[in-house]
Write a structure and sequence with these properties.
268 residues, mainly alpha, three-stranded parallel sheet, 5 strands, 10% strand
Length: 268
């Protein structure tokens, strides 16, 4: 049985979740069912949340078709939906019983989508693996042009990084927060734009540059870190400048970030 919904981050919502669970029930699916999430990160997050909550939890298999979903969203068990106030504010941890990647699907993506997915690959390298970062610095254009050998080797390493971090901190008690590098500001930008006009990876790219700037200014990162990161992000054909919106709007969106604890935001 095939269940579909309209594409787009704005449809990763409680209403779509409700509609899908109703349709599963009407079709007669029980606790012995399994969902297969075929699509991008929105599909994976939403389908995973349906699986986590339907009949108190049924298995889910992730089959990501977009680059960002292959590297990030499909691995780690985070599922959920957005609220008008912010991203992923309702959700559950629900690990997939399998993740299957077919890199041939990347050939169907527009170049802008490939670039957006590269933001998550750059993030994985920046937080965890200098060797991978240097590989991207030497050959990032080959990834955009879908050199299959380079795509496979770098994807494999990025997936291993995500899996290693999640295995050590599944519920984001500490180490897993590293994976949020660039994401706090990114989620605020997406929410303020009402999930229109800016792709998730584009927002993450801007967020990483901002975080690197602040890190250098506060003495946490070595001088030159931001310039090096910015140069790689620009070669990936991604934006680096924050959209000119009121500072208060960003702060308001950041204040409802799901990672807030004790009234404080954990900003990587």
């Amino acid at each position: 049985e095939l269940f579909t919904f309209e594409a787009g981050e704005r449809n990763k919502s409680r209403s779509t979740w409700s509609n899908l669970t109703d349709r599963l029930l009407q079709a007669g699916f029980g606790r012995d069912s399994c969902l297969i999430a075929l699509g991008g990160g929105v599909t994976g997050d939403l389908c995973g949340f349906v699986a986590a909550t339907y009949m108190r939890g049924i298995p889910v298999v992730q089959v990501p078709s977009r680059l960002a979903a292959m590297i990030d969203a499909s691995i780690g068990g985070k599922t959920g939906v957005n609220l008008p106030q912010g991203k992923n504010l309702v959700g559950a941890f629900h690990q997939p019983c399998g993740v299957f990647l077919d890199t041939a699907t990347l050939e169907s993506l527009p170049r802008r989508q490939r670039s957006a997915g590269l933001a998550e690959l750059i993030k994985a390298a920046a937080i965890w693996d200098l060797d991978l970062f240097e590989q991207l610095e030497s050959r990032i254009e080959d990834f955009l042009d879908l050199d299959q050998a380079f795509v496979l080797s770098t994807l494999e390493r990025a997936c291993a990084i995500k899996a290693e971090i999640v295995a050590r901190d599944e519920r984001e008690g500490g180490l897993r927060r590293l994976l949020n590098f660039g994401h706090t500001l990114a989620h605020a930008m997406e929410a303020h734009a009402r999930y229109r006009g800016i792709l998730h990876g584009e927002a993450v790219a801007i967020g990483m540059v901002f975080a690197a700037q602040r890190s250098e200014a506060m003495g946490f990162a070595p001088a030159g870190t931001c310039d090096r990161l910015t140069a790689l992000i620009e070669r990936a054909e991604l934006p680096t400048r924050i959209p000119d919106r009121p500072r208060r709007a960003y702060l308001t969106a950041i204040r409802v970030d799901k990672k807030k604890e004790g009234g404080k935001i954990h900003f990587v």
